[in-house]
From TrEMBL:
UniProt cross-references to PANTHER family, sorted A to Z: NUCLEOTIDE KINASE
Residues that coordinate or bind ATP: 119-124, 238, 283
Residue positions binding a ribonucleoside 5'-phosphate: 145, 167-169, 200-203, 207, 244, 255
Top-rank EC class of the record's enzyme: transferase
Annotated organism of origin: Neonectria magnoliae
Gene: URA6
Cellular location(s): Cytoplasm; Nucleus
Upper taxonomic lineage: Eukaryota, Fungi, Dikarya, Ascomycota, Pezizomycotina
Superkingdom of this protein's organism: Eukaryota
Protein's UniProt name: Uridylate kinase
Amino acid sequence: MAGRMPLLPARLGVSAARSSPRASSSSSSLTAPCALRQQHQHRRPYSSQPSPRNDKVKFWPFIAVIGLGTLGYMGLVNRRKDMPQKLDAPVGELPAPAKSTPTFSPSDVTVVFVLGGPGAGKGTQCSKLVQEHGFTHLSAGDLLRAEQERPGSQFGELIKSYIKDGLIVPMEVTIQLLENAMTETLQKTGSTKGRFLIDGFPRKMDQAVKFEESVCPAKMILFFDCPEEVMESRLLERGKTSGRSDDNAESIRKRFHTFIETSMPVVDYFEKEGKVVKLDATPTPDQVFVKTQQALKDKLGANF
């Protein structure tokens, strides 16, 4: 046995060590430090690395939530784009808040709506009434055209587009412009009483209702009835010198269509209330004016 001992397998060496008390005690005392050093040597390379765990944080739920929130926000933005925009603007240009009573009392302010198709001669008759009887003539179309040219107007481009296409401008804009003009006129005269010819308005039932609720009820409606071919001829002739963008054949036809579809129901409504006076607008302006004056006397009195 003094010679060189053959190498034993590791398991056999462990068994041999356990079978001999001396060998066990001596080998344990000698090998324990070695075993610890070997364990440390084996563990040292991994000592700075975390042990594998099964409870890793999963990020995909957070990504999904963020994605859904982004899609929801984009949807909300798109819906707001599609919603009609609220008419907000500085004081004096914008529709006033809803009022429980009209701004003007019909006992102080006389309002006469002057209706008729484009080219029926409304403006001509209003001018004569201003000269002969002291009315204030407010043309809804003129007010809108002036507003679209006013520097800094919030609704200038909108009005221009509507007029060019022969469409009706949103009533909130038109009604506020009319109320502003009436207020300015009364302030200049220093009186609470006035008489107004409102030309070319209302052109829709909702305009009529809104105006009477918020501004002033109308006393009567002058309706100048004129055939379409006569009106078209007049407008084309006027377009040669008027410079108006809507005095052209295409816009004229659109305006005719709009008037028949939306404005005639207004005439029919007020006619049932006994407020409408229909006048034939095909004769000469002077002949029409004679009949117009008589109609006003019949409705408003001799001193209208």
